[in-house]
Amino acid sequence: MAIKKFAVACYDDEEVLFPAVKKVRNSGYKLHDVYTPFPVHGLDGALGLKETDLHVAGFIYGITGTSTAVGFMSWIFCSDWPINFGGKPHWSLPAFIPITFELTVLFAAVGMVLTFCYLNQIMPGVKKHVFHPRQTDDLFVVALEINDHTNEEEVINFLKSTNAVETSIQVAESEWWFGRWDKKEPYELA
Amino acid sequence: MTERFEVPARLRNTSLALIAVGVLVLIIGGVTMLGGHDHHDKTRFWLVLLQNSVFFLLLTVASVFIQAAASLAQGGWIVAYKRVPEAIGANVWVFGVIAGAILIFIATAFDVDGHNTIYHWVHPHGDKILEGKSAFLNKEMFIGFTVVAIALWSFFGRKFRALSIAQESAPKNSTKIYWTVFKWSAAFLLVYALTQMSTIPWLWIMSIDAHWYSTMFSWYTFASAFVSGMSVIMLFVVYLKNQGNLEIVTKEHVHDLGKFMFAFSVFWTYVWFAQYMLIWYSNIPEETTYFKMRQHGPYSLIWYSVFIINFIMPILILMARPSKRNYFTVSFMAVVIIFGHWLDFFIMTMPGPLGGHWVLSWYELGIFAGFAGLLIFTVSNTLSKASLVPANHPLLKEAMIHQS
User: Fold this and answer.
1) What count of Cα atoms within 13 Å lies in the side-chain half-sphere of residue A110?
2) Does the beta-carbon distance from A98 to B276 stay under 8 Å?
3) Whole-structure pTM over 0.90, yes or no?
């Protein structure tokens, strides 16, 4: 939980957004995040985001699923409750494969969804500051992180020079927090 | 924007040398094996030819299939290196003629002391199971399906190439040919479904073990052929890139081709295992004999190698993103996958007629080299005949800015 100060600029077209993002990155201001109503192709490259490690996490979850399935079934059918199925050996690997496959997929899928939610700070019943109500509608919102030493007038003028249609200074929580959507935010907007 | 490919002398000489090795091995094999008295040798001579010609034919037809599938799905990324599958597809007829001649010879004229040791359904007399199957499994059906399938595949392979070249001289921004290809692609998928994905593997390969049958078999053969076909396309693309051609093909396209190699290796394993597991589970003697011979019998070494080469290696090596974007890893894995699926075809064909008398030696590898040389020779020749960039194609721009 950290309350921070942001300079926010809104753009009404992705063709304006891309040069603006480029200018912001060259200007030396600290870019907090960009919010768009839909996934914009190539924006991750323009923002200089590095490749996600989500698939490494997926691999680890998958391997966990595989070993859970094989280990659990081996324990059940060999030591805990051995039953003779049609004269097959107790440890019948081919019969375990489908369930092993399913558990691998299940662990990888569920684990990756939860990790994705954690990385993106989204979850049911979790709240995040919205910089502009139209950021899910038709505006592209760029948020810069600033502090008390920043010359606010200069930032706003800079953002206006990048063809922003709307600019503002906001003091807001930068992380997510638990709370319902209808509750008031725990601080006043500046 | 055009880009020409000249066949380098080194490539031409290598391919001709490989063909020479194949022909030499064929002659030596013919003299020593057909001239001898060992009936296993006579069977081996024809069986290896059958295995290799069918493997290479199905692998080239897979190139026609990927073109048709991509056209129907309106996939743009394949357009960047479209000429490669086209050139492979345009040479289906070469392998078709060879495979057709070998198959029809084996079904009609092959004879060892009054027995057809490869297709023993040719003489079903007294065998209740084969007599029951004889409405489908007979010489006329075999020849009919073989000729029709090969003719259709060759026709479509050349048709797609001709249409694609006609697009170059078509008026700018004209989509007429694009939609013509779309229609022909739909027709080809129907043909492909009724031949390669169902009847043809039954007749050509599964009927070697005529008493046994599996409903997964054609899918399993298709998976094998398709993943090796994608690997061949990958090898040609990487080769052309190394020669300084195909400038519009980037790591993004190679990455997506690598995904195909990876995904269809897993698909192959899925079908391979599905076929195995159902038979293992139900444990019916007339079905399990097929795997008894392969898994526990004289073929167990190849059986487990096939599993390791075609599943464990691709899944471990090709899973990571950087390895699919590395030209060395993908071309190395392409060679490994082609060899692995060649071994898979080996284990589909050999056990029935030869049993424990199988050999994997100079003759088998020599014939493989000959066919590989023929593939390189014909395809590189066709590639040099037209521009490598399908100019005027409506999706060319999309292909160039493709990101995987």
Assistant:
1) 7
2) no
3) no
